[in-house]
Amino acid sequence: MFGVVFPNRSFPIDISTFAQIDTFHWVLDMNTFVGEAYDQVREMCIFLLNGFTLPPNKALAVYVQSPGSPFVYCGAVTLSRPSAVLPLPWPEPGDAGAGQPLQLTSPDAAPLSAKIGVSVEDVGALASLDVAAERRIERMAMRVGENLFNFMQSFCGLDGSKLVVPTDILDRWFKKFQERAKRDPEYLKGFAL
After folding, report:
1. Which top-level group of life is the source organism from (predicted)?
2. Where are the alpha helices (DSSP H) in 99-168?
3. What angle do CA 108, 126, 22 make, to 5 degrees?
């Protein structure tokens, strides 16, 4: 059905390495796989195997779980996107914060080891197939906004408790931003880091 590779850490691993919980859920115990250094495994490639037919409205969703924390969604693959390299954002151990409702064990049992879960789910129920791309876009938007704020701040005057900027400040910033991007192709890449 699927296979995974941990870049620079493993050969391709097939579904037989995962424990099958039920028809639609599989779990890989990372403590058995890499020991306590599970959080050093930063990404994985998941891929559908040739000949496997996943219904068009279904996806294989990937989740990670640190000891004592809920599962956190990482991304998914579908027939139209049969492989993906996904970052593994391991939550802090014991962090009961913003996890996903994926249940592969009893809700009362705290996990004793780190796990990667794979689940067949409806595509429409998943937030996004590419969580990493969304994070990169968010990070880029924040850095562009920070650049604008810093530029505006350098022209600010004080009027009581308010900052006052020239009326053409956005035009000036945008022109400077465009000129710098044309001169230095690496400039925009710096915002995406």
Report:
1. Eukaryota
2. 131-153
3. 50
